[in-house]
Design brief:
The protein is α+β, with helices and mostly antiparallel strands. It is 50% helix and 10% strand. It contains 20 helices and ten strands. Helix 9 (193-201) packs antiparallel against helix 10 (207-217) and helix 16 (403-412) runs antiparallel to helix 17 (417-424). The chain is globular.
Length: 461
């Protein structure tokens, strides 16, 4: 959508006369869609709801919800329908928010496949509730985020998974050769509402905000047409959930800092770095006890361990072992998932041409290399790229189907006729043929690159 059209829709929802008092309350000279509202220390926060329904904050929230897209919730409303809905109903919704009577709708329960097998349950709020959560998030995050631990990297502005991995690498290079790898079992599904709301109440004095957040947590979940209660957890499909998760785990961060530990946390992935296995086992026991008693969360003992960093994964990466400074490398599990996905995309039974298959691969590889190109082992990427090209040559060989067509395809692609005939009559399977001189001539590296296959190389750190 063009910037002008999007701006027109924002004005349609929050134009003159729609937000009323909220617009007049905006500080003179405020820039729309840029800075979040400027608020004071979290210890003395007063009325927040007025800041949340402030016009520019709402415009930024609506723009973000539109960028995020997402599926409809239980009411079926789409993201594109939201601006017109707000035009007609915003004055009433605003009044409900200001007097503390707004009631969120139940979330829609959906299940998506997990990378390692099984399914992950997501709770999708309605588009309207996502919009209101986003508006709340923008105000609260501006105040809360600066108070969070420097070792926390997940769901925070200006921070990334790559920064977390680099920080872990620094700890290992400093001589912390053992890692306490904590896995919190179903963290988002098991956050205790009372503990969480107690933490929110320490930072927010506005009772309307407290009631609204409690309403989002306890809105219920709809599955198969039936609405069930939500006594714990926070829906992973809501914009506010990541901030609330960081608030909950900030308690753990502060405790680890108080104890003097070196650690890195990205959402519910927490690695604590120590100098010996014995120290790691002591830390594992004491931290597990703290998490269980203070936060009423569970540590998954089957997935947690004290081990060398080279034998564990963190955000898809692990680290080389030895006396030299550790280097980032792609975790073995991530390499297996990569090959599994490429095999799916290059199945002949999918009915796609070689050109369309490479286009599908290009889309996947662009994101994959954008993330895993952060590794410091270029030889692994080169080997993967060689394997990928061979996979594509085998794919083409299968598509050419029979000896005569294979001979014709190779000959027209510059393979000498005698070599093309010998290769076309070979009894070997596609994988072995894919490494033959004839296939490397017929589909050279340059040919595959010209069809759009990107080069897999490390990206700059």
């Amino acid at each position: 959508m063009s910037t002008r059209r999007q701006k027109n829709q924002l004005e349609l929802a929050f134009g003159e006369g729609v937000t009323g008092e909220a617009r007049s309350a905006a500080p003179e000279g405020t820039e729309a869609d840029t800075a979040a509202p400027r608020l004071e220390s979290p210890a003395v926060l007063g009325p927040l709801m007025e800041a949340i329904v402030e016009r520019d904050n709402l415009r930024r929230a609506l723009a973000q919800v539109r960028r995020n897209r997402g599926a409809p919730g239980v009411d079926g409303m789409t993201v594109d329908a939201l601006p017109l809905y707000l035009k007609d109903h915003w004055p009433s919704i605003r009044s409900q928010l200001l007097d503390g009577t707004y009631r969120p709708q139940p979330v829609l329960r959906v299940e998506i496949p997990k990378v390692g097998g099984g399914v992950r349950a997501l709770g999708i709020p309605t588009v309207l509730d996502r919009f209101i959560q986003q508006a709340v998030l923008q105000v609260l995050q501006a105040v809360w985020d600066p108070t969070f631990s420097d070792a926390s990297y997940g769901f925070r502005p200006g921070r990334s998974a790559h920064q977390a991995v680099a920080r872990a690498q620094e700890h290992i290079a400093d001589g912390y050769g053992w890692v306490v790898d904590l896995d919190l079992e179903k963290f988002f599904d098991r956050m205790n509402h009372d503990i969480l709301m107690g933490l929110v109440a320490k930072r927010v004095a506005d009772r309307r905000i407290l009631k609204l957040i409690r309403g989002f947590l306890a809105a219920g979940v709809t599955a198969d047409g039936l609405v069930g209660p939500t006594d714990e957890g926070t829906p992973q499909g809501g914009p506010l959930s990541p901030l609330l998760s960081n608030l909950m785990l900030d308690v753990l961060d502060k405790e680890l800092t108080r104890r003097g530990h070196c650690f890195v946390r990205y959402a519910d992935d927490c690695n604590i770095y120590v100098r010996s296995r014995r120290a790691g086992e002591r830390v594992m026991t004491s931290v597990t006890s703290f998490v269980t008693k203070r936060l009423q969360l569970r540590v998954n003992t089957a997935k947690s361990a004290v081990d060398r960093p080279s034998r564990r994964k963190f955000l898809g990466f692990s680290f080389t072992a030895g006396k030299a400074p550790p280097r980032r490398r792609i975790a073995p599990q991530a390499l297996i998932r990569f090959k599994t996905r490429v095999r799916e995309l290059t199945r002949r039974t999918k009915g796609a041409s070689l050109e369309q298959t490479i286009e599908n691969l290009r889309i996947y590889l662009t994101g994959w290399v954008g993330y895993f190109g952060f590794c410091q082992t270029p030889s692994v990427l080169r080997e993967l790229h060689q394997w990928l090209r061979r996979r594509l040559r085998a794919f083409a060989w299968k598509q050419w189907r029979n000896g005569w067509n294979r001979f014709r395809q190779m000959a027209r692609r510059g393979v000498p006729r005698r070599l093309a005939a010998q290769t076309a009559g070979s009894v070997h399977g596609p994988w072995r043929i894919a490494a033959s001189p004839a296939l490397n001539i017929a589909l050279s590296n340059a040919d595959l690159a010209a069809l759009g296959l990107p080069v897999m190389t490390p990206r700059a750190a």
